[in-house]
Each structure stands twice: as structure tokens, then as C-alpha cells.
Amino acid sequence: MSLVARHLEANGIATVVVGSARDIVEECAVARFLFTDFPLGNPCGKPYDTDMQHAIVGQALDLLETARLPRTTVQAPFKWSDDASWRSNYARVDAANAQQLRLAGEARRLRQALSQETRSQETRSRETESRETESRSTEGSA
Predict the structure, then answer these.
(1) 31-62: per-residue pLDDT in tens?
(2) Is-contact 2 16, C-beta < 8 A?
(3) Which residues contact 72 (CB under 8 A, 6 or more apart)?
(4) What is the rounded CA–CA span in Å between residue 30 and residue 104?
(5) pLDDT average, residue stretch 129-134
(6) Which residues contact 31 (CB under 8 A, 6 or more apart)?
(7) Helix or strand run (H / E) with residue 32
(8) d(Cα 58, Cα 89) in Å, to the nearest integer?
């Protein structure tokens, strides 16, 4: 994402990167960076915490408007949790949770497959309906 932001900036499109990997993003020299000290994959905050997410997006938009110097980094004022234990536990896989994570992954893949199949069936149904409507329209004008 950082390299895309640099490319866009080089072509006159202002950007703000919101992210958690401060060392990597700053090394890429993006123009504006809102650092959120959260687990990777969660740059805008905790899932379902819409107040936090809206605040972070608002802060990113403010940074887009107010940053005056290149390579500006601002740290969001939010915390993932009251203590830092999430750092050692987030995304940890060990003997105690491996089976639970495997089952959760299998369940997720099944839900995704069912959802994809439902979307495919809906698409086929719409296409069939469209062809039938077109056929009736062609027959009516002949």
C-alpha cells in the first residue's frame, strides 16, 4: 500500500496511509501516515467498534487536509486494549488452540463456499431471466 501511495502522490493524487507497521511504512517514505498501534490487518480499529473506526477515518481525512511537510506521521490516540498482552497473544497458534483454530478455519471456508455458490446461483438465475425476457421481447416484435 505504501508504494501505491507514493506512486499516486508522484502523479498528483494526495494520499494518507492508515496502518500499523510503522517501521515499514515510514521506510517507504509515504507523504502522510496515520499510525495506529493495532494488530496487523486492523488499521481502523477493532471490529464492530464503529465509533473508533469513524474517529480514525476522520483523523486520516484531517491529516490529508492539514499536513504541511512531506513524510508526516501522526499517531492515533487509541489503544487496542488497556494492557499490552495482545502483542504476544494476537494471532498466536500453539498446541492449546490449534484444533480450535483449525475448526474455525474450516467453518469459515465452508461459509465462504456456500456464499459463493449462492451468489453464482443468483447470477445464473438473473441471466436466465434476462434471456427469457429478451426472447419474449424479440418474439413480440416479430
Answers:
(1) 999 999 999 899 999 999 999 999 999 999 99
(2) no
(3) 31, 32, 33, 63
(4) 37
(5) 86
(6) 5, 6, 9, 14, 15, 67, 70, 71, 72
(7) strand 32-35
(8) 29
Q: What is the pLDDT of residues 60-89, one digit of tens each?
A: 999 999 998 889 999 999 999 888 888 887
- pTM value > 0.70: no
- Residue 69 CA, distance from chain mean position: 27
Q: Where are the domains of the chain?
A: 1-91, 93-142
51 within 8 A of 78, measured Cβ to Cβ: no
> What is the residue whose three cell numbers read 512531506?
70
**Per-position b or e across 105-118, b if 16+ CB within 10 A of its CB:** eeeeeeeeeeeeee
Chain CA centroid to CA 139, Å: 48
- The closest of 35, 34, 31 to 10, measured between CA atoms, is 31
